[in-house]
Amino acid sequence: MNIIRMVLCVFAACVTAGAHAKNWPARPVKFFIGSAPGSGPDVNLRLLSDRLSKMWGQSVVIENRPGAGGIAGTAAAASAPADGYNFLYGLTSALAMNQYLLKSMPFDPEKDLVPVVGAGVTPMVIAVNPSLPVTSIAQLIALAKSQPGKVTVGTTSKTAAHLTIASFAATAGVEFLHAHYKSAPNALQDMMAGQVQVFSDALAAIPNFKDPKVRILALTYPKRLPNMPDIPVVAETLPGFVSYGWYAIMAPTGTPADAIARVNRDVNTAVNTPELATRLRDLGTYDAGGTPEQLDRFIRAERERLRNAVAAAKIEKE
Q: How far is CA 98 from CA 126, 133, 138, 163, in A?
């Protein structure tokens, strides 16, 4: 009798799993994101979610939980039901960096979340208010050296942007007055208004690269982007300097494998359509897609890179 009962249970589980795979999604799918509406990652996710919603015939709900370097949104996703209807549009900081900046976090990025698909890599940008008398990275360095601790920089706290500026300052041998913000749009708005002089974040955080209130000095990629050949990279002035952010779609640990496979497949399809691929590239996001295994290897390597970068920038844990 026990053997028969066990066989029936296994059969029932297989039928349930098969039904889940066939019917998914049977209701709206939620994506948590640890950044504010209008931020670069948020814009990317909304473009992607619009495409996915049409593919799935279901609404895609975006829940913004900005602040704390993406921790709030990531924690919400990590604690959400692992039922195949909750996912995270994750940020570099919360997934691979903040564990080296903070003494404690409300989740374990290595145990509480599993990789689904890469959502793109983005260079960071260093921009200034046009009233600042600099038009190049070399001039910014010279100005900062002539006014130690007086040139103000606005970034979101405990993020890849924060690390970019800290690493830049350490490499260039300068000291900035750092203003920390809850969201990139707030930091950008204050830079445009002249409240801070320098802004750094993902390239996608600047909605209009030709805005007269924004002067882009350089990107932090290894080389100039083919679709933005006129924008220099910091490495042309500081050889070897590279910094970037990335986005990754993750799921709470225990999420059904079939749901992960479906999201992976459909995101790969979406980001490789000419329309969305071009739009993401124009926003400064590249190389989205791939397998969960590729994303897992990438994140593991990034944790090591960022651990070393935090140590080199001498940022103390808080």
A: 22, 34, 30, 10
Q: What are phi and psi of 165, to 5 degrees?
A: -70, -40
Q: Does residue 153 surpass a pLDDT of 60? A: yes
* Token pair listed for 122: 């983005």
Nearest to 243 by CA among 137, 123, 126: 123
The token pair that represents 151 in the structure block = 């040139």
Main-chain dihedrals φ then ψ at residue 196, nearest 5 degrees: -130, 160
Q: What is the pLDDT of residue 20?
A: 52
Check: CB of residue 316 under 8 Å from CB of residue 102. no
Read off the pTM: 0.84
34 and 63 fall within a common domain? yes
Distance between CA atoms of residues 184 and 135, nearest Å = 22
* Same domain, residue pair 213 and 223: yes
Say how far residue 310 (Cα) sits from the centre of its chain: 17
